[in-house]
Amino acid sequence: MQEWWKEEIVYQIYPKSFKDSNHDGIGDIQGIIEKLDYLEDLGVTMLWICPVYQSPMDDNGYDISDYYQIHPDFGTMEDIDELIQKAKERHIKIIMDLVINHTSDEHAWFQEALKNPDSPYRNYYIFKEGKNDQPPTNWRSVFSGSVWEKVPHEDNMYYFHSFSKKQPDLNWENPQMREDIYRMINWWLDKGIAGFRVDAINFIKKDQSWQDGPVDGADGLSSCFEFARNQPGIEVFFKELREKTFDVHQCMTVAEAVGVPYHQLDIFIGEKGCFSMMFDFNYSHIDITEHEEWFPLQNWTMQEYKDKLFLSQKEIFKTGWCGVFLENHDMQRSLNRLIRNPQERTPKVAKALGQLFMFLKGTPFIYQGEEIGTINNHRLSINDFDDLNSHAQYRRALQEGYSEEEALDFVNRRSRDNTRSPMSWNNQRYAGFSDTKPWLANNEYYKEINVAGEINDSDSVLSYYKQMIALRQNPLYHQTFVYGDFTPLDSEEYVIAYIRQDKQNQILCIQNLQNKTTSFPLEHYSKVLLSNDDIHIYDHQIQLSPYQSMIILL
Ligand code: GLC
Ligand code: CA
Predict the structure, then answer these.
(1) Which GO-annotated molecular functions does the record name (predicted)?
(2) How far apart are the C-alpha atoms of 450 and 425, rounded to whole Å?
(3) What pLDDT sits at residue 379?
(4) Checking CA distances to 183, which of 208, 251, 386, 501 falls within 20 to 30 Å?
């Protein structure tokens, strides 16, 4: 079925790190407005704005203390309205981040719940008595440590948090709480935004039997995923949420839902599912453990990665739709994640990886800095990291018996700060992000990898991204790339090849993800639409140079 949101090309902005407009070293909404020309020129049609709401910033805004206010570091509500308006003038839509599994512990509701155990707000959260001087269950939170935090000045009383202790989970079992959340969602939709990226939404239902799980770490705890993620009954909450908010506004929603087994897709993206689309993490989390730990290092092969990617496409489109992405603000840079040899993290490879994703079936999401081929930062001390999860994973690795050096290595590889260092706009001081020292150190390679250096270079990663977007939007091929079938092709391990086709076109997308020349059979073709290297096709074969990518109209 044709849907407008299937045709978008989304660009994800992490506002704190995108552009500082007022000289305080922190990115802000006016900074985004300054860069709208850049985004229009790139060709994207929608922006996903990571949280800019009022927040104590324990988790950089994913801990919201007031859904109706903008954090002063980012600007004002007028700035958001201006952004929506100015983006619209450029035919760019805005989706906001919707964080409704939890609030900040500094949210007025939670403060009231703490102050007055008899207040109705107590039941907006999950409070429970401990057992035998211990928390109610032995579940480990996503950011490590117990999911339970002791309530100050009360005996044997705890509150629940899936993430940090400054992010208490909302109690979705409470209809009054749900109504307050729906009111807030509708208030934002009334502003004229196009929809939401919906944070950690598969956590909103908890197993109500509150049983201990099997201990799976040196901390004596048990991963909370078995009890607090993708739980049966969650579909009841989804249905109401959709009917009372998203349906009313016909908005676009994309669910962040890690670890959803494919047989459960229906409640997320099926016809009666809650969301327009979801992100499937089953292939992108290839570098971390099932419990989302950054250690030990995972041994994965390109074959496994390819199989997972193809399986994802196969399963998702049986049921609904997905957003496809190479990077986001919770991952490391893709060149580091997917390419083992540091020498091979080159612009050519960045183009090949970008192409692999841009032409999959699904709505493409590009993360800021991906379009210029940014690579990870290397930090010498744990103190140089800002991300709370980097500190948590470091502590847990030590606890599990790894050395400080090993623990730092895990964090350097996987830290979320890798995608959160300020955007590199040029090779000047502070990379043109700000004229004062940024809140987080600039990317160490900003002198070589930056927007200004790439924008007029027709051979740059940035230019390739522009060409890919333009090709996807070209009326001759647009329908094929959006709605056409996806067919994976057999090939050697490091070659990823697939065909997108409909009645009009048959288009081969091929990427040679190795530092070695190879070939691929090609019986007939009409035209090469794009490539990151010179084209050699003869004797019914495509010759592919190391890391060559090509789009070929058959
Ligand atoms: C999501 C966000 C992540 C955040 C977490 C808790 O996974 O993407 O950045 O830390 O939810 O809100
Ligand atoms: Ca600023």
Answers:
(1) alpha-amylase activity
(2) 5
(3) 97
(4) 208
Give the tokens for residue 51: 């949280």
504 secondary structure, DSSP code: S
Q: How far, in Å, CA of 451 to CA of 431, rounded?
A: 9
Contacts with 197 (C-beta within 8 Å, 6 or more apart), sequence order: 48, 95, 96, 97, 98, 253, 254, 256
The CA distance from 436 to 414, in Å, is: 27
Say what percent of the chain tops pLDDT 90: 99
Conformational region of residue 65, where left means phi above 0, alpha means psi within -120 to 50, and beta covers everything else: alpha
- Structure confidence by residue, pLDDT tens digits, 399-409: 999 999 999 99
Contacts of 402 (CB under 8 A, 6+ apart): 295, 410
Contact 277, 269 (CB under 8 A): yes
List the beta bridge partners of residue 365.
10, 325
**Sheet order of strands, 148-150 included:** 127-129, 157-160, 148-150
Residue of 236, 256, 240 lying closest to 248 (CA atoms): 240
Fold of the 4-100+175-385+423-465 domain: TIM Barrel (3.20.20)
C-alpha 235/C-alpha 258 separation (Å) is 16
Q: Which ligand is nearest to the CA of 22?
A: 2
Considering only CA atoms, which of 233, 282, 472, 269 is closest in space to residue 360? 472
* pLDDT for the residue numbered 539: 87
3-state secondary structure 281-343: CCCCCCCCCCCCCCCCCCCCCHHHHHHHHHHHHHHHHHHCCEEEECCCCCCCCHHHHHCCCHH
Whether ligand 1 lies within 6 angstroms of the CB of 99 is answered as: yes
Ligand 1, pocket-test mutation among 330, 331, 419, most atoms within 8 A of CB: 330
417 close to 60: Cβ distance less than 8 angstroms: no
Q: Ligand 2: distance of its center to the CA of 19 in Å? A: 8
What residue owns the CA closest to ligand 1's atom 9?
330
Provide CATH code, domain 484-553: 2.60.40.1180
3-state DSSP assignment of residue 506: strand
Beta strands 53-54; 66-70: pairing state: antiparallel
Q: What is the pLDDT of residue 158?
A: 98
Ranges of the chain with pLDDT below 50: none
- Ligand 1 proximity of 163 Cβ (cutoff 6 Å): yes
d(CA 220, CA 202): 25
Residue nearest to atom 3 of ligand 1 (CA): 330
User: Catalytic residue numbers?
Assistant: 199, 256
Q: Rounded to the nearest 10 degrees, how much is the dihedral formed by the CA atoms of 451, 457, 462, 463? A: 150
Ligand in nearest proximity to the CA of 367 = 1
One DSSP character per residue, 395-447 reads HHHHHTT--HHHHHHHHHHH-GGGTTSPP---SSGGGGT-SS--SSPPPTTTT
**Backbone dihedral angles phi then psi of residue 464, each to the nearest 5 degrees:** -65, -40
Ligand 2 centre to CA of 446 (Å) is 20
Q: 527 is written with which tokens?
A: 């035209």
